[in-house]
Amino acid sequence: MAWWLCQKLAAENVLVAYPDFEDWGWFVEYIVDEDEYWLCCGNVDGTKNRWLIYLKAHAKSMFGRNRAPVEAAMPLLSALRKILDQSEEVSDVEWRAG
Prior knowledge:
Blueprint: H1 2-11, E1 20-22, E2 25-32, E3 35-43, E4 51-57, H2 74-86
Antiparallel strand pairs: 1-2, 2-3, 3-4
């Protein structure tokens, strides 16, 4: 999923880093000025074709203070919505805030 998103985002002129992984799944890094975000992707537990994708805004200081503002990631989020809405390979998208 992360590699597919990376390619689709590049086609929308939204540049992200090459996918990397953690123990919970994959992510692509998105940087705007001094703000860093991860677009995280992981399988829904017990499934092979359902994904959870979420944005993680990184803190600029210790202890999670001064998180990057979500507003700076809007180009990424807008492109993500467009990609998922227009893809014939994707269905049953459920958007959640928070």
